[in-house]
Amino acid sequence: MKKQDFIKEVSAKAGLSQDAVTKSLNTMIDVITAQLKKGGEVNVTGFGAFKVSQRAARNGVNPKTRQKITIKAMKSPVFRAGKTLKEAVR
């Protein structure tokens, strides 16, 4: 499902305009992104948690040249599904 399809479905189920749902979704994404940039986390009870994971530097291989390279340490966003979501999917 693409973002626009998601917006249409939420709009229909909630009885809201697509414009209102789009603004809400975009604002939600902006708030989560800003919180993760600060190093925080966002917990949505029953749905899951958005966190930042620190990945350590590691060695790798360039697939074109087979040359060994060092991949820098980085931060990566992570989503962990909550118990309610996991049970619903199972």
Major sheet summary line:
3 strands, antiparallel
Please, how many domains? Answer: 2
- Provide the spatial order of strands within the biggest beta sheet: 1-2-5
CATH architecture term of the largest domain: Irregular
Weakly predicted, low-confidence segments: none
Number of helices: 3
Distance between the termini: 19 Å
Oligomer type? single chain
Would you state the CATH class of the largest domain? Few Secondary Structures
Principal-axes shape call = elongated
Beta-strand percent range: 25-35%
Number of strands: 5
Mean pLDDT: 94
Rg over CA atoms, rounded to whole Å, is 18 Å
Secondary-structure class: alpha+beta
The name CATH uses for the topology of the largest domain is HU Protein, Chain A
The CATH homologous superfamily of the largest domain = IHF-like DNA-binding proteins
Mind explaining what this structure looks like?
The protein has helices at residues 3-14, 18-37, 83-89, and strands at residues 42-44, 48-55, 58-61, 68-71, 74-81. The protein is α+β, with helices and mostly antiparallel strands and 90 residues long. The chain folds into two domains: 1-38; 41-90, HU Protein, Chain A (Irregular). The strands form two sheets. It has a three-stranded antiparallel β-sheet with strand order 1-2-5. It has a two-stranded antiparallel sheet with strand order 3-4. A hairpin with a 6-residue loop joins strand 3 and strand 4. The two termini are 19 Å apart. The model has no long low-confidence stretch (mean pLDDT 94).
